[in-house]
Design goal:
It is built from one helix and seven strands, in the order αβββββββ. By secondary structure, the chain is mainly beta. The protein has one domain: Jelly Rolls. The longest helix has 14 residues. The protein is elongated.
Length: 140
């Protein structure tokens, strides 16, 4: 009889399940960031998420470097705006992306000799973001 209770207890512990694994690997309201000399990635699955994040880029840019930028937003159902700012080393805005719906956006830029044209910082600001955002800058 004692062995039966032990087997039942082990069986219950072994068969307990946790929350399902996310399909995309993202956990709600926890930003995923990669910041290396070759790539910057910001990914987020937001669920009524207020975001105000800032990242200094680790890029080692030079003239003739090509930067490919991709912004993908899906499952969007936010009720407010979210913005991604790309700033230079002097904290002046070079580009900004307004997120108001699902979208796919790409661009490619060749850096010239002016270092003030190089991205140096990313700011992500938003209120009540609902959806999945994936923002990448890749140096080629």
């Amino acid at each position: 009889m004692k062995h039966t209770y032990i087997l039942v207890a082990i069986s219950l512990l072994y068969n307990c399940i946790g929350p399902p694994e996310p399909d995309d690997g993202l956990i709600d309201n926890i930003p995923f960031v990669i910041n290396t000399a070759e790539v910057f990635t910001f990914a987020l699955r937001g669920n009524s998420y207020d975001v105000d994040e800032s990242y200094d880029l680790s890029f080692a840019l030079d003239s003739n470097a090509v930067l490919s930028t991709t912004l993908i937003v899906n499952e969007y159902s936010g009720s407010d705006s979210t913005l991604i700012y790309v700033n230079n080393s002097a904290d002046s805005t070079l580009l900004w992306y307004l997120i108001l719906s699902n979208m796919v956006y790409t661009r490619s830029d060749t850096m010239d000799g002016n270092a003030l044209g190089y991205p140096g910082k990313i700011n992500v600001v938003g209120t009540n973001f609902n959806g999945v955002v994936d923002f990448q800058i890749v140096k080629k």
